[in-house]
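Subject: Protein record for review, amino acid sequence with backbone structure tokens
Why sent: The fold of this protein is of interest and is recorded here as tokens.
Notation: Tokens come from a learned vocabulary of local backbone shapes, not from coordinates.
Attached in line: The record itself begins immediately under this heading.
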Amino acid sequence: MASPFDLGGKVAIITGGNGGIGLGMARGLTGAGATIVIAARNAEKSQAAVAELTKSGAKAVSIVTDVTDEKALASLADATLKQFGRIDILVANAGTTVRKPPQTISVGEWHTVIDTNLTSTLVAAQSVYPAMKAAGGGKIITIGSMMSLFGASYSPAYAASKGGVVQLTRSLACAWAPDNIQANCVLPGWIDTEMTQGARQQVEGLNERVLARTPAQRWGHTRDFAGIAVFLASSASDFVTGAAIPVDGGYSVMA
């Protein structure tokens, strides 16, 4: 009997998959047998990620993509189909932030964050939907945040975008369930990435507050996302859709 976690023969697109949580998920998916398409703007960083993944025997390629460009996301889906003949999994992971209070963030900065984090998730999902429907099913994994649940004075645009990602994911789950497409959202806690390293420099006392509230008593690692990615991308989660799943060391349940 085949393992419900086996991803052999499956093809996954990961936006922003050349570092951080996206690369952590890519490592998990390739370990389960999936072929990976890394879609990001930084070609050099993407090539380094591909080199790492293929060194272990996995199949991975990179396609330079600006997720805020609707045509680029359509081209990404077309190029993936042309090269591999299928799209089974989308991980909509690309994201950015601007750390400013609501009274000082500009409309331009607001749109940059919303377009990168929220609008690109919709457009990426739209781009892969026809291929998934034609194939009889698929898996969409979106990336929310603890800011989907909590407020923070320094992240109005980021929080709004990530709250929107959760609700968008639920809409996708309801709309595309008849097509056997499951859509679920991962809510990372405080993870040690380039983005949060910047936050620790800009937000005084953040490191101490995170450690004090996290029952696991540590920051998360990108490797902590390998398992959840495999679960949500595989047949093991065929009856799980519209969920928002924290991966946070218990941060969100700590009183």
In short: The chain is about 45% helix and 15% strand.
